[in-house]
């Protein structure tokens, strides 16, 4: 069983993150998905960015940090879009993390990253929140530090392609992403409800930045 902390997008804690957390729980893992907005949510990206500005990025990070207080040091950090920026803000404080999963956005890899740490990035191709220069920076940092970085791109998918409630949704890309995510967090030990399985998008070489937050 893995321990997982999943941080939501700029739109707030919504069904896409809640369903993701449940899918991981059904696979036998312990998951927290904190509400970093204190109960608020946004209907559009512009509203989400204004919400972050009003709440304050430092408050968002502190709420995420607080959510990890009761979690073990090896908790896997998962960032969904803006959540990748949240992971960036906490990563250096969590040197014992068992892994880092970045969905829909790139993130900063700290220079102090542990050699051999498993990291995965899943992003559409193209995606303005995972531009080539930022992904190249992640690859360089991972290579220099000896981290185990895998990058999976999904050509033609929309930015937030795993969210079935948004126009970006791409069922095939979402299915491939979820198969890889479930493989990453470890062998499944299903509870009574079976996980929604998936498999398979082109993956550039194995090989990071934080805010501004992405959706």
Structural key phrases:
215 residues, alpha/beta, six-stranded parallel sheet, 34% helix
Description:
34% of the residues lie in helices and 15% in strands. It is an alpha/beta fold. The protein has a six-stranded parallel sheet, with helices on both faces. About 11% of the residues have low confidence.
Radius of gyration: 16 Å
Major sheet: 6 strands, parallel
Overall 3D shape: globular
| Helix percentage | 25-40%
How many DSSP-defined strands? 6
Strand content: 15-25%
The parts where pLDDT drops under 50 for at least 5 residues are 190-212
Strand order of the largest sheet: 2-1-3-4-5-6
Structural class: alpha/beta
* Distance between the first and last residues' Cα: 29 Å
Q: What is the residue-averaged pLDDT? A: 90
Number of helices: 6
The sequence of SSEs as H and E is EHEHHEHEEHEH
What is the topological layout?
Layout: E1 3-7, H1 15-26, E2 30-32, H2 45-55, H3 57-67, E3 76-80, H4 82-91, E4 100-103, E5 118-125, H5 132-145, E6 148-155, H6 171-185
Parallel strand pairs: 1-2, 1-3, 3-4, 4-5, 5-6
């Amino acid at each position: 069983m893995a321990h997982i902390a999943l941080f939501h997008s700029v739109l707030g804690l919504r069904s896409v993150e809640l369903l993701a957390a449940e899918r991981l729980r059904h696979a036998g893992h312990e998951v927290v998905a904190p509400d970093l907005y204190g109960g608020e949510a946004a209907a559009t990206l512009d509203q989400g960015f204004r919400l972050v500005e009003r709440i304050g990025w430092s408050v968002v990070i502190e709420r995420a940090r607080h959510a990890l207080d009761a979690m073990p040091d090896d908790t896997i950090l998962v960032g969904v879009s803006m959540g990748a920026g949240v992971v960036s803000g906490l990563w250096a404080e969590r040197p014992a993390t068992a892994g880092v999963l970045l969905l829909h956005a790139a993130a900063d890899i700290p220079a102090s990253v542990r050699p051999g740490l498993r990291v995965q990035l899943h992003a559409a191709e193209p995606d303005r929140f995972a531009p080539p220069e930022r992904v190249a920076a992640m690859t360089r940092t991972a290579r220099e530090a000896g981290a185990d970085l895998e990058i999976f791109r999904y050509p033609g998918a929309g930015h937030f392609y795993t969210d079935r409630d948004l126009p970006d949704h791409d069922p095939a890309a979402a299915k491939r992403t979820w198969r890889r995510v479930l493989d990453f967090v470890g062998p499944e030990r299903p509870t009574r409800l079976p996980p929604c399985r998936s498999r398979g998008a082109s993956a550039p070489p194995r090989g990071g930045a934080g805010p501004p937050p992405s959706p």
